[in-house]
Amino acid sequence: xxxxxxxxxxxxxxxxxxxxxxxxxxxxxxxxxxxxxxxxxxxxxxxxxxxxxxxxxxxxxxxxxxxxxxxxxxxxxxxxxxxxxxxxxxxxxxxxxxxxxxxxxxxxxxxxxxxxxxxxxxxxxxxxxxxxxxxxxxxxxxxxxxxxxxxxxxxxxxxxxxxxxxxxxxxxxxxxxxxxxxxxxxxxxxxxxxxxxxxxxxxxxxxxxxxxxxxxxxxxxxxxxxxxxxxxxxxxxxxxxxxxxxxxxxxxxxxxxxxxxxxxxxxxx
Length: 269
Hints:
Blueprint: H1 3-7, H2 28-42, E1 47-51, H3 57-67, E2 73-78, H4 85-96, H5 104-120, E3 124-129, H6 137-146, E4 158-163, H7 166-171, H8 177-180, E5 185-189, H9 194-207, H10 217-227, H11 231-247, H12 255-264
Parallel strand pairs: 1-4, 1-5, 2-3, 3-4
Helix pairs in contact: 2-3, 4-5, 9-10, 10-12, 11-12
């Protein structure tokens, strides 16, 4: 255990990214997003999910994985979006446990046949494409074909495109209209509101073994304002604030301590 964590009586660093799916914290707005995603996939629809960096897109996907019944769905997660079309489908084959073929046509055929086979087993496959704003244009233009089965009359696959807001702009281009028209659900993840930030900090501290407050109300307000409610920045700055307070032999992170951390922070908050 780190010295600064022991200083506060913490059982572990409270703002580590290493947290189990069952211990994820979601505010009401994100719980609603998980419910909407679940509804969309039960309807066999495809989804566009966008949000700024660090607002919790991956957390929502992990909560979705927990929420969907395993017996009826097969989730496949891909986050390497910077590949050309053939390599993208080869990667998808590997993720699906299929042997990738040499040509683009045969690789695509392997994936689409696998989707059809799952449909016969009454299992609905869901392809989660993270960082989708980085997709090569030739891949983006081709994805709508992956959704076309039996003369485009059966929804055998749900596609969930996850990325930064600029993904919306790309999809609005005329050359991407075929894919855009198939994304029937359009969802957006917003940053936390001030009360959410306070609740999140309290939750993570409790998971690390502390019931008492370690941040003053003023410090939490400053933290929220500095991070604009993005979870990734909250985790980073809150950790540095606790470390700084421990170095000063303080038992509480006060506004002055947080202000000193923010003056030296270069992580983008």
